[in-house]
Fold:
Amino acid sequence: MSSIKDRQRAAARARLEKEMAERSAAARKRRQRQAIIGSALAVVVIAGAAFFVVQAMKDDKGTETSAAPEASASTGAEPAASLPPAGPGTVNCVWTPSDEAGGGKVKDVGTPPFNVPNTGKSTLTFETNLGAISADIDLSKAPCTGASFKHLAEKKFLDNTKCHRLVNKDGFKVLQCGDPFATGEGYRDTDGTGGPSYTMVEENLPTDDKKPYPAGSIAMANTGAPGSTGSQFFICSEDTVLPANYTLLGTINKGLDIVRNVVKAGDDGAFEPSPGGGRPKTEVVIKTMTLTAA
Structure:
């Protein structure tokens, strides 16, 4: 009898060890996937940078600076309670000032208006060295992110910048862009750590667990912390499964074939084994970015 019980215990222990190993592998894979997108500003995350959640009302300076000011009374930030209520067809957005204290790079372009439309649609267009890529944006779903891109387009924030990261894995195929400092010939170690002088709260998060980021989605990267969305974004060339933590900005209506060809060409593996992926072998340069009413 004891031998039977011993065998049963051994079998149960083997099943438990197998289950724990499978869970560990699944958790590791989830962490890796989240890190690839979430580490758009990984330096900031590692440094543990904290952002002050205040309503930024800075004047637009339109200049580049090595260190944007910290959120304080001198930045022109006001508490949300002092802002007038949003009128019909509009919504108030919170723009949180950011600086380089955490290790990221900041390009100071002021902040968008705090009161923005939440009705209508816009078309976001990137004229690239490979052709035009454009997306439909529904402002009723992502009004603040749409307003941010309008502001950044007016400031020529991403003109002549390069897409700095690519991931080409099963169920996870994306091209990531949006760093204003990713310019010039070749790539730099700092590419992927840049953004504007503000961050915003995530909005329009996916509700479909099985297909959160379908092929053609354009979504916003963040550091993994709430309210850390900046200017970096990723385009899914195929259905991509990620945690529903990233703002769905819109859907590509033109140029998805360009993205697919770039993803298919692969990357240099610069970010392997962690967080994964690398710099695109086929260079993508955003010559101009515009946002117009649809």
About this structure: Residues 39-81 have pLDDT under 50 and may be disordered. Residues 77 and 216 are 36 Å apart (CA to CA). The longest helix spans residues 2-38.
